[in-house]
Amino acid sequence: METTFLLRKLEKFNVLLASKSPRRQELLAQLGISFAVCNSFVNETVPQGLSVHDTAQYLAQQKAEAVFAMYKKQKELIVIGGDTLVTLDNEIMGKPANRKEAFRMLKKLSGKQHAVISGISVVTHKKILTKYDEALVSFNDLSDEDICYYVDKFMPYDKAGAYGIQEWIGCRGIRKIEGSFFTIMGFPTHLVWNMLEEIIL
User: Fold this and answer.
1) Which of 16, 64, 99, 172 is most buried, most CB within 10 Å of its CB?
2) What does the DSSP assignment read for 51-93?
């Protein structure tokens, strides 16, 4: 499908992003898509026994479906939801609650490779499509001073794993990534584009 064809097709839809994340908003805008933003207000409770990949997809779909339910009377509605998880040694690292927790997470990630899984869900009146993308991130060894500087200056309490790859810690500490940079940012743009192509055909 030609790029301009997809963008033209999307013009007749009301596209909503079920996320207040400025990073997701920025990346969706960079795709050239016009959209509005709506917070899903979802309580991120997950059924027991889900894998980390299923958890990311479950939460993304919960957010998209919650926003869709608010606006379902609108015709030609597309809602996009996303969720990102950081996992190391079978531990899911969510958003840190405080400075101590952020420090602990980054100390644990220091010198190791971890996985970032971003789930995406696209909901319309006719179809629900939910997928995920995964990337691997390798950190250099981080000193306590490095970690304290980053946490105190950037306060990464809204970020899974207590870091944003696009911030100082990414420039200073990440030595290798395998996969999409945008997946690590929390919004795998290539996957979103492919899903939108699939959903409107």
Assistant:
1) 64
2) -HHHHHHHHHHHHHHHHHHHHTTSSSEEEEEEEEEEEETTEEE
CATH number of domain containing 55: 3.90.950.10
Active-site residue 54, yes or no? no
In angstroms, the Cα distances linking 201 to 71, 78, 127, 139 are 22, 13, 11, 41
Q: Which residues of 19-36 are buried (b: 16+ CB within 10 A; e: fewer)?
A: bebebbeebbeebebebe
Residue 114 has pLDDT above 70, yes or no: yes
H-assigned helices in 11-51: 22-30
pLDDT of residue 45: 80
**Residue 34 belongs to what domain range?**
3-200
Q: How many residues does the chain have?
A: 201
Q: What is the reported pTM?
A: 0.93
Phi first, then psi: what are they for 33, rounded to 5°?
-100, 130
The catalytic residue among 83, 89, 152, 158 is 83
- Structure tokens of 70? 């608010």
Number of Cβ within a 10 Å radius of residue 77: 17
| Number of domains the chain is built from | 1
